[in-house]
Predict the 3D structure of the following.
Amino acid sequence: MKKWKKTSTALAAVLAASTLLAGCGNGGGSDSGSQAGSDTQSGASGSQSQAADNQGGASHQIGDGKVTLTIFCDFQNAARSYYTDLGDNPVVQWIEKDTGLTLEFIHAPAGDDGTFFQNMLAGGDLPDLIFSSRFQTHYPGGVEGAINDGVLYDVTELVEQNAPNFWALCDEENDPDIQKKIRGDQGMIIKFGSTFLPPTDNNKVFNGLVIRQDWLEKYNLEAPVTLDEYTEVLRTFKENGVEYPLALCEFFNQSQFSANNPIASAFGVSVKEFDLDADGNVHYCRTQDGYKEFLKFLHGWAEEGLIDEDLVSRNIDDALRLFQGGQAGMCFAHTYNVKQSVAVGPASDPEFKLLCLEMPKVNASDETHLSSPTRSINSNSWQVSADCKHPEEAVAFIDYLMSPDTLLLTAWGTNEGENKTYQINSDGQREFTEFVTNNPDGLDYDTVRALNMCAPFQIKYDETMEASQYSEAECHQSWDAWGKQNDGAYNLPRYLTLTTEESAELTRIKQDLANYSDEMVYKFIFGQEDIDAKWDEFVAELERLGSTRGEEINKEAYDRYLQRGN
Amino acid sequence: MKKKGIGPFQVVNALIMLFLIFITIYPMYYVVVASISDPILLKSHTGPLLWILGEPTLAGYEKTLANKNLFNGFKITLFYLVVGTSIQLILTSFGAYVVSRKNFLLRNGVMKFMVFTMFFSGGLIPMFFAIRNTGIYNTIWVSSIPYAVSAYNLIIMKTFFASIPESLEEAAIIDGANDFTVFSRVIMPLSKPVVAVMMLYYGVGQWNSWFPAAMFNRDRKIYPLQMILREILIENQEQSADSLFAAVEQSFSNDLVKYCTIVVSTVPILVIYPFLQKYFEKGVMIGAVKG
Amino acid sequence: MGVAKSMTADRKTPFFKKLRKNMVTHPLLYLMILPVLAYFLVYHYYPMYGMIISFFDYVPTKGITGSSFVGLKHFRAFLEDPYFFRTMSNTLSINLLLLLFGFPFPIIFAILLNELRSAKFRKVTQTVTYMPHFISTVVICGLMLDFCKSKGVITTIFSAVSGIEPVNLFSQSAYFQPLYVLMCIWQEFGWDSIIYFAALTGIDQALYEAADIDGAGRWKKILHITIPGISPTIIILLIMRIGNMMTLGWDKILLLYNPMIYEKADVISTYVYRIGLMNFQYSFSTAVGVFNSIINFILLLSANAVSRKVNETSLW
């Protein structure tokens, strides 16, 4: 028993940690963050029709009325206390009626890291439709690899012929690279039903540095932009007894941080990735001269006590806590944390005011290119399994989810029955009713939404709803500040596909590089190793461990990506 | 035994015990205090927690206990606890008894056969197939039958059984007892302390069991309590990442819920211990041995 | 008498004949062990074929038959890994520390607790000390990290006692192993001592009374009655502990360590976790698991053999 208990706790840790990994694959908090938001404002399609209007006739009938589709997809955690599975959701029931399909659901348990999915794959009985990022992120050869292995059905032809709503959403994107993003290296469509974002969300930077504005005012300081100004501000904080002028966190394993590369991006490098340069070449960041400068710079801060050794055992939340509790003057945050801090901060200090800062730069006019803005079409997508007996109906069903009316339905609910979920306000826009925002049964907003709307079926987020979520001025300021002269142009596109062999080799190389250099990087920063003396040796070791080969593999995959759709 | 006065040894010993109590009670204290603290203050609190922050609140418990599946999960867990622990206890004591018998020819072979499994296992996916092929996939049995005997526990039990004086069994055999009645009438009654330990080991295991349900159950109606609590916990932890748009006020209770689920999942099992404790008192066995 | 007969069975009798005879004289024993053996066969031996993926480049969806055979590649990769020596030595040194300090602690605690006069005090101590076992690892490790930061409670006490400048204890590789071992002892000693309480109940009280009459002191009684009384339990647990040297409760290490202290904190399991499980290198992870199991198994066999020679207590 004891042994079994140990095993299970060990596995629990594995589960917990690889959830982080999954988050990482999605591009950190920003991506998964905007997921729950949702649906498209009808602006583009001009359809404000209520869901109920569609009910007449069998125009949305899919199949002969006898088709059953089994679906593996998300099931909102908040709904798990109330519903057995997504089939109990009123929106889903409405859709079943509208399409004549019978839908059956399989969900992974909350907190599962993909082991459930793995078992399902290995067990050999796949559901008809699968919503998952795992084929994209973990399957050798990606979605196309799974199609070649006979696990998934190649939907390319069906989608090309018969998915008008999907193509309409693609057109709305106005993105010249759209074909590259939805297709794999072999030209198959691999991102059918991937999440689309409305213009308000798309291409925004959701992560960056925040500072105590009230302290800036107190010490007569300007909001810092250049690294020298940052140093000046932190120094002043320190002199005035601020315990942690800048509370950083362990930055290699905190995906939010390492995906946005604050400070490092000022030197043109990321903290741990392979990056592009202006000419489209791939570099491993830690062999670059910029990285040496970055380390020397942080070492300077550490020497002065502007950052502290505790950061290695701090996660992003711990750092935020110090900031919100008034012990830190500056920290790294998500727009959501900004909203949260505005509410929490005053509890410890009534003067608490926060300001989002531009990404630090060497010169005020510099641009940085290593953040991770949100973007339409990400690693999530709907897949039809090779076992599916009704691939045409399955594709038609997913396309149905992308129709303007269904997008409204899944975002705002059916609005049937005694509890109306939305109403049209004086501006002609939809808004949630009191039932949602201030539930009579005391249910929180999340739960009401999980019970009455259907986020797992939402393929495009709703603009109106998104806007209403971030009403605070600080949140809007965060996008302005963090997106100023800052984008993700030097990140390798997330849409690359590696072959099975490449993926195995690259994984190994990345791991070897990280194992050796994570340790060294901290030693450099905190002065346990001398940067000038050891740098050449450090770079040579990284090259020996395969940094150059890693650059080649990425470059080849990038070139294939550029060739897609040509 | 002679009664002696309180000597320096007793004083020092008591002080050591007090020290151990002091340093071990803190995490439990921390969890309880945190679970009823003001969530907003808790959010920005750093450093050791000494007392409830702000006005005490039961909001976290309300949120945790409001879950509609909680009661059902509790029923499933009770089943795990009663049926699962019984199966484990019965099979383990059978096994331990047989390999403790000197007149069981295969005892060394069987011991090696079982010990080998403590070290080598095939991993999750073969286990998945074993469970599916034996027809218990997606049933309430996934937490008990595939984990029916722990070789580790069996060895501990066997060690105790082996230490029972042979003279006692011989007496029973002369009275006409067979191998099973020796087990049920002589060995088991004399082994109450180790049976209590096994009940604790297996019982705690069953109480905390969630992994088999997570991996081998698709039907959410047979999720045990720990699985439901895990989902509550994860729901609350992931709120910030999962739904950027959750009203911030609600997100404060996340930390509370974390601590409340620990209290809810720990206290019932802590309560069991005092009932088993009486079997760990000196001289429990002596009466039986002499009688 | 069945006992006498089988005990004196002729050594030269062929095994199967002996077995048949044994089955006839003790049918109930065979009947009782049957479900246990069936259990181990179905849920342990049958899935064991999964280990052979360590000889393949395993792809889950292709199954073992569809994956390519690579022989000892993964084992060789592990043994030739540049970090093999470091992680191996960390694993062994942490385990040795745990064996040296963590193993005796609950025994000493149980004996000392047994000496307490007040039954109520004894019970309360038992109940309280076993509580940390139940608090989730994440919370415990979170508290530990907090207490060891540069202004944390443990750091403050440590620096006051040693006179060393207060620093984050988890940023200095030298402190990791002692801190980890202390934390493990603290979390588990109460729980681990339960089995010794049970063992203590088996000691014949008459022995103490006789010793009292002989005028033996407290230490004499502990040394000559209490410890020998629980020694079979101690030895069996020790053997099993030794057979576990290569594996550790690494989930805790994963929560506590950071790259800065890999030097002393990175053990085989955490290393394999980073390079294997996180990246779905099933075959490699399995190969390391098999390697560890073999070493563990050999250690257990040796410990068992030594113990059988020295004091006649052994697993079989």
User: Anything to note?
Assistant: Chain B has 15 helices and no strands. The two ends of chain B are 20 Å apart (CA to CA). Residues 238-250, 286-291 of chain B have pLDDT under 50 and may be disordered. The domain at 58-290 of chain B is CATH 1.10.3720.10 (MetI-like fold).
